[in-house]
Amino acid sequence: MELEDINTVAVLGAGNMGHGIAEVVAMAGYDVHMRDINDEFVQNGYEQIEWSLDKLAENDQLTEDEAEAALERITPLVDMEEACGDADVVIEAVPEQMEIKEDVYTELEAVAPDRAIFATNTSSLSITDLAEFTDRPGQFCGMHFFNPPVRMQLVEVISGAETDAETLDVIEELAEDIGKSPVRVRKDSPGFIVNRVLVPLMNEACWLVENDEATIAEVDSTTKYDMGLPMGSFELGDQVGNDISYHVLEYMHEVLGEAYEPCPLLQRKVENEELGKKTGKGFYDYEDGPGAEIPTDEQSELVKARLTASMANEVAKLIGNDVAPPKSIDEATKLGAGFPDGPVKMVDDFGIENALEALEAAYEETGHERYEPAEYLEERVSEGGFYDATEADEAGAEFDAIRVEYPGDMVGHIVLDRPHRMNTISGELLEELSAAIDLLEDDDEVRSILITGEGEKAFSAGADVQSMAAGGADPIQAQELSRQGQSTFGKLEACDMPVVAGVDGFCLGGGMELATCADLRVASERSEFGQPELNLGLLPGWGGTQRLKHIVGEGRAKEIIFTAERYEADVMESYGFVNELVDNSDLEASALELAADLAGGPPIAQKFTKRAMLAGRDDTEAGLEYEASAFGHLMATDDLMEGITAFMGDGEPNFQGE
To answer: What is the pTM of this model?
Structure first.
């Protein structure tokens, strides 16, 4: 089967995952049959889809016509044959119980056409075992969406023992076609990639508290504000549901052995029905207490070492057993769990030898199998890390938080590449951006810079506030971060080449300060701008108090900063901040076209123009003096003669910068 052969997708199960998957598939233009065991369940799922589509339209993420069309493509059904009798792909999203899934696949196999591919959304159960309930193991695979499917980009595509390569290829293509980012899982292994890293990590957090080696506050403070993960370990457990984590661990324990023994602390939480947010209490109290209040200054070196070591061991097992390569593990965990960096890179940065040492010390002290180092981990210590030189290049080792591309026409394209974090700006990103500017300025084949954000949600939603809060929000560190951003953005502003910012989505805080340093700004209609720092008790710290007024005027700059409100793109165009407003689908092409046009201009004259304007920003006389000097210099350039000749001959000049 090819992608173009897929017209109808059946989704079995209308619960949270099922109706979310149905909505995503329908929005991509496919006919969807959503089936559940009774009218009440399936109608409830349909109503949830209708509500979600209305919200997307209300927030301008879809037009009303697109939302109505997507809803019309979904048919709620109860009868299995009616739902799946003509389906090209069937995505199963029923409860995570093997007995239920066996009944579903037995009934499905009797009515589905021979051509149909079956894909299970299971988060932990064996793909190979589930395929045995059907007569088509070659056309059976995992297609694991993350909750909520409408928002989460990752889809793990998992091979069973007998899955055909063609099946995996077409399901990956389908995932891409519905706007998701598929990551291939080569072998059927409990937890696949993301849960295989996350669940043992949460279990180890529990063991640290159970054994009185750390407090919940120390674990979550370390996890969130030292390791930089999006949530504390216990905060995440409460969010996911402690029963969910416990059941996944039970399955891992059953299949993989004693290394995955659930911690008694987690078991007690489940037995006491303290499951997290959904029951009002878990590791934190959400009803009678303040919820997850995590201190920023209670980090523990022991906790960091032990949790990093846990990730190192799981990563080693995944790579060593050929479940997934390093790049896939990092990509999946960033997309599916919101990690700022993938666990492989985190371990390599921590020092793989340090992770092994932490495991060996804990194993010697406790004898527990979860600390027994994986063979592949020990092998990689001698190599200095999980990534070798070739893989590091493929994973973007030179730049991790950004990408540098060369689309042609003498344009250097910098992409802020943290879509899992809304392209928020961290210290690492600032360092890489500074290096990228130097790289492009030293390249004689590049004559303009285009800067954009990866994905459609954000150019950049601002500073990575979480990383700023690390270490108790130390004032000295904050000053250093402010100066680092001011220096990097100043380098971009002072770059001799024209700089274009292509803004799509949120352009807030530090992201707007970055865009302010571009010479011209092209924005999509859905973009939103703002300097929300005052709402946090801060002020723009990367030049916003100084640069914005030179573009929109001091009055408008004060309005934007003091109100801390968000502004639509058309308003910012009227303020003079946005130079060109384009349709959402045209943003990248329009921004690249403008950058290419500028790259074809006279580079010496462009350089002197920028320098003169900067020189005169606070001292008009100095700017005028620079202007006169540059004017005289340009009279002796070959570019001037090229421009005059082209003008006289009614042609296009070919400036060489000479």
So the answer is: 0.78
404 beta partners:
414
Computed over its alpha carbons, how large is the radius of gyration of the chain? 27
**Cα 200 off chain centre by:** 22
128: CB partners within 8 A, 6+ apart: 137, 160, 161, 162, 188
Rounded Cα distance between 537 and 462, Å, is 15
Burial of 390 (0-12, 13-18, 19+ CB in 10 A): exposed
Q: Per residue in 330-371, pLDDT tens? A: 999 999 998 888 999 999 999 999 999 999 999 999 999 999
Instruction: Provide the strand spans (E) within 532-621.
Output: 567-568, 580-582
The catalytic site residues sit at: 123, 144, 156, 195
* Amino acid at residue number 33: H
Residue 225's pLDDT is 87
Residue stretches of the chain with pLDDT short of 70: 389-397, 466-474, 623, 630, 633-634, 640-643, 646, 657-658
pLDDT, tens digit (0-9, with 9 covering 90-100), for 96-109: 889 999 999 999 99
Q: How, if at all, do strands 520-524 and 567-568 pair?
A: unpaired
Q: How many whole angstroms separate alpha carbon 517 and alpha carbon 491?
A: 9
| Residue 540 burial (CB count, 10 A) | 26
CA distance 578 to 567: 11
Structure tokens at 247: 């059941």
Cis peptide before 148 (omega within 30 of 0): yes
Within 10 Å of residue 404's Cβ, how many Cβ atoms?
22
